[in-house]
Amino acid sequence: DHTGEIIAQGLQEALLSWNLPEARQVCITTDNGSNIVKAVSLNKWKRLQCFGHRLHLAIERSMKDSRIDRAVGVCKKVVSSFSFSWKKRRDLGTAQQELNSPAHQLISESPTRWGSRAKMIERVLEQERAISQVLAADKKTRHLVLTWNILAIQDDDTALTQSIKVSILDYLREKFDDTATNDLLDMAGLVDPRFKTRYIAEDNLEETKCRAISEMEAITV
What we know:
Elements: H1 4-17, E1 28-30, H2 34-42, E2 47-49, H3 51-62, H4 66-83, H5 86-99, H6 116-126, H7 128-136, H8 142-145, H9 157-175, H10 179-191, H11 202-218
Parallel strand pairs: 1-2
């Protein structure tokens, strides 16, 4: 049973099994599942949203544009036509040899695999000539060749790219606009030798250093 109460108890037991004092527990990173959010709340722990999950949601949100939907729809139809036909997959291999294209299989998008949409589109574009050759030879899929122009570079692509970036940034700013979270991330970055002060705002740098020194001095082994 994955209720918030059960998960909260399981998390407490995990700390005990690892001999980790709850007082030393800084935060817990989770996705946005209601049960895990409730569990963290019941334990009165600081929760840090999974940035990867939020980034995925931000990208999905930014993709809700009719131009993007049409282009992605074309890719899905093309990939689907090969997924359900061993003959087309065979013919694709033949076309790849004739055109000296990489002998790569097409990739299907999966809602649970982050980044799979980008990989699908990248592979379709890589195999465009071989795919077109196979589709054009079949009356049932010949019409898909005519839709390639949707994927062609358009004059307004720059504006579209900008709107996507703005949408992603606005979403992330909204979800991570929390002083306590930002302070925690600043501290984590400071003590990480890979990042140190690289991502700390200039206005917060001295305060973050002082907090780090203060917390280290307060630690009792």
